Every structure is written in structure tokens, then in C-alpha cells.
Amino acid sequence: MKTILITGATSGIGEATVKQFLGKSWKVIATGRNEEKLNNLKSAGAEIIKTDITNPQDINNLVTHIVNNGLKIDVLVNNAGFGQFGTIEETPDNKAKAQFETNVFGLASVTRAILPEMRKNRNGRIINVSSIAGKTSMPGGGWYSASKFAVEAISDSLRWEVKQFGIKVSIIEPGPIKTGFANTVNNNVVIEDSGPYGNLVKGLTGSGKSVKGGTAEGCAKTIYRAATAKNPRNRYLVTKEAKLIKFLLIILPPKIMDYFVMRMFIPKK
Ligand SMILES: NC(=O)c1ccc[n+]([C@@H]2O[C@H](COP(=O)([O-])OP(=O)(O)OC[C@H]3O[C@@H](n4cnc5c(N)ncnc54)[C@H](OP(=O)(O)O)[C@@H]3O)[C@@H](O)[C@H]2O)c1
Q1: Distance separating alpha carbons of residues 62 and 56, to the nearest angstrom
Q2: What class, spelled out in words, does domain 3-265 have in CATH?
Q3: Where in the chain are the domains?
Q4: Is the pTM of this model over 0.90?
Q5: For ligand 1, is residue 8 a contact (CB within 6 Å)?
Q6: Is 84 in the pocket of ligand 1 (CB under 6 A)?
Q7: What would the pLDDT profile of 119-150 be if each residue is shown by its tens digit?
Q8: Whose CA is nearest to atom 42 of ligand 1?
Q9: C-alpha dihedral (129, 212, 239, 47), degrees to nearest 10
Q10: What's the gap in Å between 95 CA and the centre of ligand 1?
Q11: What is the distance in A from the centroid of ligand 1 to the CA of 256?
């Protein structure tokens, strides 16, 4: 039986991924911060380990648990992440850093913790959940995109570095997915309603509330493909929106892309 470890497993894409792999009779180690939700996953058949990926002690405990129980992690899914939206001028350093603490340094910490065993086994897969926002930015989404651009760069370097040990690395690039993500974004928008960028608030929170797009289950199926394909792709785009954006980035001159982004996100004052 193969074993998968998933971060941020307590909701959305992470939770759906737990269920997808349990349904395929994998051993699933679900990690996250919310104890009540972790217990629900335990009832569903997962092994649970409480882990805040920004907490070094939690990461140590995770490794100790894996080593003490002789667990062999075949696949690591770095899924935990959140969106912190706000303009570059109005977002204070601590908010921007918090975005990187989870989406970038948390992902790197978990990866560093799991890699030695994978190297020893000369086998393993790491699947990093990035975003189409790791390919292009948007007004008000600069820091979130910066964190996902970083995930893209780190994942590429890692793939080249660990190939020699038989470890494969793939990146998942979802477009909008109906999860708790948009609510977290809406509760964290750092733009003053009455400030110079007030018009952006409507564009961002409005678009968040009426999220169209794919499902967490659909994304989990793509993660399953990345985990089980003989030769997994470097990147998996998820949702038609992500595929369209990637296509437009390739064919449109940057200034035309600017025009569409402005039309989409900056309502007239
Ligand atoms: N939904 C989208 O439209 C979309 C699009 C592209 C990419 N993504 C990416 O997909 C991933 C999953 O997001 P989602 O859509 O499933 O949103 P979600 O429903 O909000 O799930 C995010 C998960 O990450 C967990 N998390 C956040 N910070 C954590 C930390 N420090 N330690 C451990 N767990 C932490 C959350 O736990 P708590 O419940 O404890 O907060 C939650 O379980 C994220 O990396 C996100 O950037 C999402």
C-alpha cells in the first residue's frame, strides 16, 4: 500500500485529496491545524498529525512521528496555503511576510523534513500546489502571486536537484476553485475602502464572492494523476480558466494583456 502525506488537509483541495486517495486505498497521512476537522478525517480512515507548517516544533514532531513509526512517504502534497490580497502600497510588511511564511517557507520546511527519507528510499514524489497566479499577477494580488511565483521557481530547482535520487516533482496550477479560499481572501483584503485604491475592493471581493471555476474534487483527481502517472508532467493546469489564461499569456502582447486585466479588476470610480 502506498502512502501519501498532505498538508492543509482540513478543507478545500487538501480535504478532497485525502478523500480521493482514501478512495483508491492509499494510506493517507492528513496534516493540518484544525483538530476537529482532523478528527473527521481520522473517522474517514486517514492517519492524522496536527501540523502548522509555519511552526518548526510541529515539523519536528511530524518527522519524529514518521521515523518512529517507520512510515515510508511515497508522495508529499504541499497544499497548505492562503491568499492575502491588498495593494502593494497598503500591505504592511508583516502581512506580506505572513503570506511567504506559509506559502513559501512552510512548503520548503515540510519538503526539507521529508526529503532525507525519500532520498534514502531512492523513490518519491513531491507535488506542490501553486496557482495560475504563479504565472501572472493581478491588481491587489501582488504578494499572493509573488509567493506562488516563488513556489514555481523552488519546484523547478527542486525537480532538477532530486532527479538523481529517483524523486519526481510536479506543480499543480489551479485557476479558481470553489473552496474556502475566497472567503479567506475576502476576510484578509488590505485595501482601504475610502483610500486611493477603494475602487479595487469592489473588483476583488466582488469577484471572490461569486467564484466560478472548478471543484476541489476535480483538482484532487489531477493530483492523483500527478501521483500515479509513470512519467508525471512538470505542470498540471486545472480548470478551463487557468488554461485560457496560460494561452492568453502566450499569444497576447503584454500591453493587450494589461488592457484585459484592467478591464476585469479595476471598476471605474
Ligand atoms: N481555491 C482556489 O481558487 C485556488 C486557486 C489556485 C491555488 N489554490 C491553492 O490551493 C491550496 C489549497 O487552497 P484551497 O483552495 O483548498 O483553500 P482552503 O479551503 O482555504 O484550504 C487551505 C488549507 O490550507 C490550510 N493552511 C493554511 N495555512 C496553514 C498553515 N500555516 N499550516 C497548515 N495548514 C494551513 C488551511 O487550514 P486552516 O483551515 O487551519 O486555515 C486549509 O486547510 C492553496 O495553496 C491555495 O493557494 C487555490
Answers
A1: 10
A2: alpha beta
A3: 3-265
A4: yes
A5: yes
A6: no
A7: 999 999 999 999 999 999 999 999 999 999 99
A8: 8
A9: 40
A10: 16
A11: 32
